[in-house]
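Can anyone check this?
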Amino acid sequence: MNTTPNSDIIDVKDLIESFDFDEHVRRSDAYFATLQPDDWRFYKPFYGPSAISGVLVKIGQMFDLAALYHGATVMDFGCGTAWLSRIVARLGCNAIAVDVAQTPLRMADDFTRRTQPDLADKITYSVYDSQHIDLPDESVDCILCHDAFHHVADQKITLTELYRVLRPEGRAVFVEPGPNHSRSPMSQFEMRNYGVIENDIRIEQIDEIAREVGFYRLDVSLFAVRGHAIPVAHYMQIYKREVESAQQFAPDAPAIYRSLAMGSILNERIFVIYKSKDSLQSDSRRHDGTLGSIKVLNATKSEGSLILDVEITNTGRTIWRPSGSGHGAVNLGLQLYSEKKLAVENFMRHNFLTERLRPEETVVTRVVCKKPIPAEHQLRLNLVAENVLWFNTPGGGVLVEMPI
């Protein structure tokens, strides 16, 4: 990593301590005031063919760690031009753009209303005044912070506020530079010309602070992998050695893996801070990892009703939300098939969960179906996370052997 010569270096700690919060805000406002209404920064990440790949890789990892879902309330902390907020809103989440300065918030709102008016009412804006974010306690599902935490003057106060607004199962995801960021030529230029904070991100210190304010755990992404193309013959050699042979590594595989990891180890920090132990697991509002099994223990008829005793087990990685009509609520769905084809997808819903069901937990429920089932139809049981997915593909689930 290239750094500025020691003879003319600006110490970021001195810069932070030289001014109070209001002055840092004034400098941030002044920085954004220099931008034109259609500056390239408003178009991130689509602002240039040479830069897009690295940004998209990191955004992909950010969203992977965030475990977002439709309808989630997501804070874009240190939003700047709010380009990330617009992505979040486009994905169907409720975006809250937060920054210390008023100017970028006004400019971001103006840009959104001019260029993407359909998103204008899906993003709200809030100012962070150094001590307080104007949001209620436990009101945010996830916090995204893209290249902004290294601009804050007081990491502990900031993390305390992020902890306060996160819901108990929430998490905060960061994409930041590395531990020598302040000494890079670009950081020195920014601090010298604009007086903005370009701090180092020392992950071990952030971990210690996060635990002090109450967070449960911090995890760091090892790879920020970009394309690493090699000749096909070389690729097949590695593939055969890694996958098809008993050898653990191809001879040059460690060197390749190390080269992929070292870029992020040296210069980037992509990490997630979990508020609680429950934050480690996503829930049934997401597609991936939501799996279950169904076993019919008993099937009888009584007074024209079909009565089923059913054992249901969470066999996936996600926590199931209680039954109901809400997004991601897990219900037992009854479906009708005719000649092995789906005839009625939503024949009946059965609510069987009054509280969350964790992975490997099992519940037994009784289903009473009073609706008549045509003789030429078959009844299948399937699990459904409402407005998210049916657990099994069409034709899956469990076929009920009808009692005589």
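Reply from J.R.: I decoded it. The radius of gyration is 26 Å.
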